[in-house]
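User: Could you check the structure of this?
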Amino acid sequence: MFAEDTNTRAWQIYGQRQLDRAYSPPIPDRLSWTPWDGLGPGAEVLGDVTGRRVLDIGSGAGHHAVHLAQAHGARVTGIELSPTQHERAFSAHSDVDGVEFLQADVTEYLAKAEPFDAAYAIGTLAFVDPHRSLPALRDGLRPGAPLILSLLHTDLHGLGPSTEVAPREQMILLSDDPPLPTQMWVLAPQLWEDLLTEYGFRVEAINLFPHPDQGASVVQQLLRARRLSHRSARVASRPRSTRAPAAHAAVGVGAILLSEQGILLGRHQRGTLELPGGSVEGDGESFEDAVVRELAEETGLVARTSDVELLGTLVDHVDGVLRVTVGARVHTWQGQPVTQPVESVGEWAWYPLDQLPNGLFVCSAQILTAWRPDLPIDHPPAHFTAFAQAPWRR
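Assistant: Sure, the predicted structure tokens are below.
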């Protein structure tokens, strides 16, 4: 079964169960982009929608659309693929002025509809292949129209986003029934930004919102984009040949977190003490994304790419392999470092700069002395090239 077919079936079952329970969520007093009330911005991120045509993608029970119509004067079209979800919205809110509910595939509907002034999706666009949904949204929005997307970033098991455009299994949890398996495109923020840029949008902001309970791992991302007035011509490129280049380098990142207690170091299973970090993954992961991902995977700490300051590159050779390590400072984070069961580094602790332990991993030692040359740390030499600090990074 194709990924989107799996999702269609899951949401049809979910909608039927809610119909059987006669459950309709209350109309909210405030538009919330996360599952947690009061966290993050409200409807203001859509701009002034008074009298504007707004598309609610995957409108579900219709309560968000009704709020926008009643509290903000928008003319909202709720588009929903699941017949049972559509029935929930239509049966409860069909008489509300300024709102219409349609049961249809969003890409097929937008191919024939008059362009909208704004569009949003609260937790729903990740159930549709972005290579199908984003070009349809580009063509279905007026130039300059905002597109606001609330998307899963890290699930309740602590699994962070993917750096490749591929779906993976996620569960719809139900209080009294077995969970429903779905296929979701849970993508890293940089990958969403690349996709949106490719399909004619300008990304204006990406925010991560961790669960308000610090013991929970769930993180939601809010992505604000705007449809460009035109698509600029793109210059094509191609590889030199069809053969992949020979691998000859290992590329990784290491992150310095400095608190009042000192530097954060963890102990590897092989005994070395080291900074949070690891290898940069393929498919276009940036150094900043790699730092944020590795920090979450190894320590459970949550940071944003805007919290990451890249210091520079360290280059050395190990057994004939070129090793490139990018050092970084993470200035702000949330949570407390905790040993993660499946990781090779744990026992995280803070070490004062004047009491650094013996047995530092070479890459970590190189990063620390590149950052603070006065630190009395011995290590094999590496060539360090500092990154220039652009004004917009300050």
